[in-house]
Each structure stands twice: as structure tokens, then as C-alpha cells.
Design brief:
12 helices, 10 strands, 41% helix, 14% strand
């Protein structure tokens, strides 16, 4: 289906004599026409279009800037003026891509000398524009069909991950039939958390059209605090080659549904062959995402096999209370002491390394560690006390997440 989008975008480019790009409603790039050629070698793209093509997405700021012109509500083509301050050096003509009244994407054209005479005041009066909008409507129908197919696969994936037997087994069999040979793997299961639910059946699932994504769904109340998470089933080239899953995670983390920038994280389960172990893989993916959110050095995309002690910590009951000995240290007034203790234990109790990591004098480190012992009653020369303190400090991050 990706090839069909490219063909339709090329039709619009040919009809209007200007290079076009097609983006979904989240400003993710789907297809783009050729830019430049023998006769227009001096054609320049501004930073916004360059980023869109090279990184296959636009920033949240760019999206907000364009949406301020009403593109999400537009029924007809819009002309948007340039704004160098926003990185838009060349104006745009936006063709809204709709299906049954719902905007599903946008076709963008650079409003240069090729389109200067295009009159948008009387919609579709220009036959070239009418042809382009007819093609945009065909794109809308394709996107809608793809969203419906993605939603159906997403529902099966959600049931496979969360339903009880025998509904889980029925979902597995139906998903295997729908995916065909791809269901035999290798496959990776990705969790992006938190994920915003919008109530639109096409949201999220429509993103399954991304290359390499076999199925995708939002899972309500997937996290201990009741937040939703996104599950994405990714086709891999080999069990030891997670690159397609990492690329998908990067794209999804930039989705506006992934929450505020810096808040969302992604977790990647150990790859599997076939669908039978996906419920267990979902537990791993969620645990890795929670670990990535708790420990930023692991993220923003963490692999289950690389999260270390968090494989144990994420399995603990989410409503547990902190150990009584460590609880005083977790008070907000002692944040600096808690961080000092954690860095010291991360450095295997090596004072020199810990002081350097914290950027403090060694004597300051000893003073703080003495305060930690006074607050907790724990002996930092005792292995079991160290273990209790270290795990408690790590676990407290998960509770905050």
C-alpha cells in the first residue's frame, strides 16, 4: 500500500507542477515527490521540509504552527504564508486529506513561482486543483481503509496480550491467520508508556502502517498508576537484529500521543518466534519501559535484557510500601542524601569514583554517607544493608513513575 501512496503523490505533483509531500495527521511522512531536477537545480527546501523528508516527521512546534491556520478543520485547500522565524522560508499550499468528513492527513506543496497563479478563492475552479483534490480524496479512502485494517489487527493483539483464556487463544489464532507467514517471526514486542487515549478508533492503530509494524494497539490501564501504554508488534530480520524495533520506538516516542516530551519511554521485550509467548513478552516490554522512565541512562528505549536489577524490581507489587529503615531517606528534604547513597552504591562502594561522579570532595561524601547511616540505621559496611538500601532506592523511582 505504501507504493500506492507514492503513486498518488506523484499524480498530484504532476497535476500542479510542484513537488508534493504526504503526511498523516500526526505529521509523520508517508510519501514525497521528487525535489529538483535538470531544469530546477536551484530549487531550495526550507528547514521544515528538509527535516520532514530526512527524519520522516516534524516537530511538535511545527505541527502547532501549521495547525494554527485551521488545517485540521479545512474542507478546501489553504494557502499558508512563509515565516522565516518558524523555519518556513517558503509558503505552503495545504490540501487536506479527508474521508467521510474526518481529516486523515495533509498534502503539502511549496508555494513557489510554479503555484503563484493558483487561485484558491474559488475552490476547485482551477481544473488542476480539482484534479489534485480528487487524488487527495483517493488518498483519504486508502488511509481510512488502512486504519480500519490496523484497528482490527490491534484489537486482536490487545486480546492476545490482556484477555483471559480462551479469548486469548482465539485472538492468537485469528492474528496468526491475519498476519500469515509474518506471524512465525522473528518478532519484537514494544511498549510505549504512557500513551494517551483519544477515543478515536483510528488513532494509534492507524500508525500501524509504518514500515515493519505488524500490529499495534493501545492498552488501557497498563501501568500501575492506571495510565495506558501502546503495544507494537514489530517484524525483525533476525532475532539478534532489533534495529527495526528501535526505529519504530523512536518514531512512536515523537508521536503527540506519547505524552509530554521527556515523560514517555519505550521498552523492548526479548524477541520471539511466533505468537505463543507474546503475553510474557508484553510483561517484559512494560517492565523495560518503566525502567527506562525510572532510570534515564537506560532510555529512552530500554531492552529487557539490559535493565539489570529492574527485571526483579518491576515484578514487585506496585502498591508496596518502602522499607521502614529506608523510608526516612526518601523524604523530599533528603533528596541530596538519597542521590549520594545511590551513586555511592552504583560505584560499588568506591569513594573516589562516587565523589568524582557527584562532583564533591571525598570528605563531603563521607559526611553525607554518615548522615545516611544515622537516618536509616543501616551499616554501609554491611553487604545485606547495602543491598537493602540500593534496591529500595531503585524501587522508589518506579513508585514515582
Amino acid at each position: 500500500m505504501r507504493g500506492e501512496y507514492q503513486q498518488l503523490v506523484d499524480e498530484i505533483s504532476a497535476a500542479l507542477g510542484a513537488p508534493a509531500t504526504l503526511e498523516d495527521r500526526d505529521f509523520g511522512l508517508i510519501a514525497f515527490g521528487a525535489h529538483g531536477g535538470d531544469d530546477d537545480a536551484d530549487l531550495l527546501m526550507d528547514p521544515v521540509r528538509t527535516r520532514s523528508i530526512l527524519q520522516r516527521r516534524s516537530t511538535a512546534a511545527v505541527r502547532a504552527w501549521f495547525e494554527a491556520f485551521g488545517i485540521a478543520r479545512a474542507q478546501a485547500p489553504l494557502r499558508i504564508p512563509p515565516d522565516p522565524a518558524a523555519g518556513v522560508f517558503t509558503g505552503r499550499i495545504c490540501l487536506p486529506v479527508r474521508h467521510r468528513g474526518v481529516v486523515l492527513g495533509y498534502v503539502w506543496l511549496l508555494d513557489d513561482e510554479h503555484l503563484a497563479g493558483l487561485d484558491l478563492s474559488v475552490p476547485f475552479a482551477d481544473p488542476r486543483l480539482a484534479q489534485a483534490m480528487d487524488t487527495a480524496a483517493r488518498i483519504g479512502a486508502l488511509l481510512a481503509a488502512e486504519a480500519r485494517a490496523g484497528a482490527e489487527l490491534g484489537e486482536l493483539l490487545r486480546d492476545l496480550l490482556t484477555a483471559r483464556r480462551p479469548a486469548r487463544e482465539a485472538a492468537r489464532d485469528a492474528l496468526r491467520e491475519a498476519l500469515g507467514s509474518a506471524s512465525d517471526g522473528p518478532l519484537a514486542l514494544l511498549a510505549v508508556a504512557p500513551w494517551q487515549l483519544t477515543g478515536d478508533a483510528a488513532d494509534g492503530e492507524a500508525l500501524a502502517a509504518q514500515s515493519g509494524v505488524a500490529a499495534m494497539c493501545a492498552v488501557p490501564e497498563a501501568l500501575p498508576d492506571g495510565s495506558a501504554a501502546l503495544a507494537a508488534l514489530i517484524r525483525l530480520r533476525a532475532l539478534g537484529s532489533p534495529a527495526p524495533a528501535m526505529a519504530a520506538a523512536d518514531r512512536l516516542l515523537h508521536s503527540p500521543r506519547a505524552g509530554r516530551p521527556g515523560l514517555a519511554a519505550a521498552g523492548l521485550a526479548e524477541p520471539r518466534r511466533g505468537l505463543a509467548e507474546l503475553p510474557e513478552a508484553w510483561t517484559e516490554a512494560l517492565a523495560a519501559a518503566r525502567a527506562a522512565a525510572a532510570e534515564r541512562r537506560l532510555g529512552p528505549v530500554a531492552e529487557w535484557e539490559r535493565i539489570g536489577a529492574y527485571r526483579v524490581l518491576t515484578a514487585l507489587p506496585p502498591d508496596r510500601t518502602a522499607d521502614p529503615a529506608v523510608r526516612p531517606l526518601l523524604a523530599r528534604t533528603h533528596t541530596e542524601l538519597a542521590r549520594t547513597a545511590e551513586v555511592f552504591l552504583d560505584c560499588a562502594g568506591q569513594a573516589g569514583r562516587a565523589a568524582a561522579a557527584l562532583g564533591i570532595h571525598r570528605q563531603t561524601l563521607y559526611y553525607r554517607l554518615n548522615r545516611v547511616e544515622q537516618l536509616t540505621g543501616l551499616d554501609l559496611d554491611d553487604g545485606e544493608d547495602r543491598l537493602l538500601l540500593h534496591l529500595s532506592l531503585k524501587a522508589s523511582r518506579l513508585r514515582l513513575g
